[in-house]
Amino acid sequence: MLITSFTNSSSSTLVKVVEGIKTPLKFDGLNFPMWKVEMTIFLRYLGSRVAKAVTKPFNVPIGDEDTWSDIFTKKFDANAKAHYVLFQSLNNDDIARVIHYKSAYEIWTHLVFTHEGTSQVKRAKIDFLCS
Question: Residue 45 and residue 28: Cα distance in Å, rounded?
């Protein structure tokens, strides 16, 4: 089995390649801000549509795949890739929290809300640290 890793300047592994398949850095539940940046870079590496899949809501269309437009098929594929990458990178606790979501956007939004909180919570943390 061939395993190759690519690292950033802080020596954390950004991408692991196992037999030609790229896998993202695992999120261990700690240091979410750093993981979020690294995951954003990894999603961009997979393509702009994949990166956009976590920032734009996505609804699975009704009907047969053969009737979908080319654009919608590309959006569906990008969502599927982002969804897969997110699941591959999460720990079991986070997977249990997001397993029912149908889109990468829903998963990403849940993770951000869970690990960063709302803007009101962030402001309260900053106020607490500054006082």
Answer: 22
